[in-house]
């Protein structure tokens, strides 16, 4: 029986537009830091942050590594000769995120989550993203309290499809892999990765490509999101037998 419905976040629940290389964003963070007595330039901050990120990624044993932006930003500022409090580092990370990212709800996705919860399903999140950013973003959209557990790649130091991410999910949830259905838009990460770990999978084929999807128990399009509760229910053995 499906006991837990796991969601990817970006392009599954929230559409995202990013411009991570926008120099104006780093200038803004530098000005913000300047108000707190940390004198850096946007260019130096951008370059040092990129170097620290690459260094941390190179130290990982995962084929799909991730970093914690708070740790990397702390190291970048240290490399520029500055120390900062944890709260200042956290706030600076949020300024950078706000300056480089725009989020909008995926049509119908929030309603599907609410319907699943009303139907008695436990819902959780399993996504390649930074906890430092995404907790606040979920809160801003009124989604945070719906999900438990929440697993981000920054927590694990690895990204889906690394099995360590799904292992953390089932460990925190206290369920067997076969009791979880994972829903996401990235075929390699959300269908193949979850399938290899033993989770049931629903692949959100955003482009309605019609491609073969052997790792997905179901392939759906954006138009199918409203039917997600029925689709999840159909994955239960007794429902399939009826």
What does the model show?
The chain is α/β, with parallel strands linked by helices and 242 residues long. It has 2 domains: 4-17 and 103-241, Rossmann fold; 19-102. It is 48% helix and 15% strand. It is built from 11 helices and 8 strands. It has helices at residues 23-35, 42-59, 69-79, 86-100, 109-118, 131-140, 153-156, 163-173, 187-197, 228-234, 237-241; strands at residues 4-7, 14-18, 101-105, 122-127, 150-152, 180-184, 200-204, 218-220. A 6-stranded parallel β-sheet has the order 5-4-1-6-7-8. A two-stranded antiparallel sheet has the order 2-3. β6, α9 (187-197) and β7 form a beta-alpha-beta unit. α1 (23-35) packs across α2 (42-59), α2 crosses α3 (69-79) and α3 packs across α4. The longest helix is centred in the first third of the chain and has 18 residues, at 42-59. The radius of gyration is 19 Å and the shape is elongated. The two termini are 14 Å apart. 37% of the residues are buried. The mean pLDDT is 95.
């Amino acid at each position: 029986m499906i006991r837990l419905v796991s969601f990817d976040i970006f392009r599954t629940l929230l559409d995202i537009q990013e411009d991570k290389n926008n120099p104006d964003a780093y200038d803004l963070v530098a000005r913000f830091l300047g108000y707190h007595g940390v004198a850096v330039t946007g260019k130096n901050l951008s370059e040092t942050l990129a170097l620290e990120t690459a260094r941390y990624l190179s130290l990982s044993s995962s084929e799909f590594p991730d970093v914690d932006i708070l740790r990397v930003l702390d190291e970048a500022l240290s490399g520029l000769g500055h120390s900062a409090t944890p709260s200042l580092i956290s706030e600076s990370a949020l300024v950078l995120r706000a300056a480089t990212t725009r989020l909008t709800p995926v049509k119908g996705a929030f309603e599907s989550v609410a319907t699943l919860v009303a139907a008695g399903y436990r819902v959780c999140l399993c996504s390649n993203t930074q906890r430092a950013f995404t907790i606040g973003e979920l809160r801003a959209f009124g989604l945070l309290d719906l999900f438990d557990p929440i697993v981000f790649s920054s927590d694990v130091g690895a990204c889906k499809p690394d099995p360590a991410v799904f292992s953390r999910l089932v460990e925190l949830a206290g369920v067997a892999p076969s009791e979880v259905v994972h829903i996401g838009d990235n075929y390699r990460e959300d269908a193949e990765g979850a399938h290899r770990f033993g989770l049931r999978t629903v692949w959100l084929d955003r482009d309605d490509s019609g491609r073969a999807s052997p790792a997905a128990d179901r392939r759906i399009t954006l138009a199918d999101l409203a039917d997600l509760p029925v689709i999840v229910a159909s994955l239960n053995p007794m429902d399939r037998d009826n």
